[in-house]
Amino acid sequence: MERGWFNLPFSVWAILCLFVAAVYAFFWPSDRVVDAGALRFLVVRWGHSLAWVLLALMCSLKAFGNPSMANWGNLAGLLALLVYVAFVVATFFWQ
Q1: Which of 34, 53, 79, 92 is the most exposed place for a label (fewest CB within 10 A)?
Q2: Model's pTM, two decimal places?
Q3: By the 8 A CB rule, do 59 and 11 touch?
């Protein structure tokens, strides 16, 4: 089992990421989308949770130490970054 930050196994990080995703599924900035369109509402409502789910996927793929799976994990991490940037833009800069 591969280890990540703070010498914790990636499987532990995946569980922590899923916990954050679950919490954010219930607590989200609903005051930011009072009169928003459908796309902005979707991104603000689910963007943060989706980013954390993608991070959990990244950690899960890196946990086994297989280089090809780790490459797919890198792609999942990049997608998480893009989703999170879209979430931040939709939450704070999109009117």
Answers
A1: 34
A2: 0.89
A3: yes
Does residue 4 surpass a pLDDT of 80?
no
Q: What letter would DSSP give residue 89? A: I
Per-domain residue ranges of the chain? 9-26+35-93
Q: What CA–CA distance (Å, rounded) separates 55 from 10?
A: 11
Instruction: Answer left, alpha or beta for residue 7, where phi above 0 means left and psi between -120 and 50 means alpha.
Output: left
Q: How long is the chain? A: 95
What Rg, from alpha-carbon coordinates, does the chain have?
Answer: 15
Residue-wise pLDDT tens digits, 60-95 = 999 988 888 889 999 999 999 999 999 999 989 887
Q: Which residues pair with 3 in a beta bridge?
A: 9
